[in-house]
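ESCALATION

Customer reports they have been waiting on this structure for their group meeting. Please prioritize. Original submission:
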Amino acid sequence: MEDIHQLIKRWLQKDEKAFEQVFYYYYPRLYRYAFRYLKNEFWAEELSMEVLTRVWERRSAITHAETFENYLFTAARNHLINHWQRKIDSLLSLETLPADAADAPGRYDPILSKELETFYHNSLSDLPPQRRLIFLLHRNDHLSYNEIALKLKISPKTVENHIGAALKQLRVAMLQYLASVIL
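Update from on-call: job pushed to the front of the queue and completed.
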């Protein structure tokens, strides 16, 4: 096989057939990289294909063959981060998530890692007691803001503020955790 940098240079010079070899050179590496974090063959394949497709579409942004690999794996890392951000948003969504995702492993989201779920539950315990109570009353008991306000003898606006702050704190903690794992 020709030197990979020469292939990339040919591809950047509009030799589209060279991309096929570039694809076969990088696809297994991207797949292993994605699988390491996703622990799911299907999603690792999807992510690898999506990254290579995006690189193909944005090839005009690539100016040097020597930096192609950095560009490619930075794109893969960004796709992973976006993937996990969507998972975190899904995990924190009060409207769509069962009361306790740990009770239904794989039912709601088959690729949601146990590690992330564990971290989420640990992060819940880091919330201030009043905020955690309000968050769990809303999430687990499905009480409305007004019902929680009546039960705790506080205003609905206070309930709203606590839930908003809890979601923000949980989202930040989980993103920091994922960043430490991925980066």
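Sent to customer with the following note: Residues 109-182 form a domain with the Arc Repressor Mutant, subunit A fold (CATH 1.10.10.10).
Escalation resolved.
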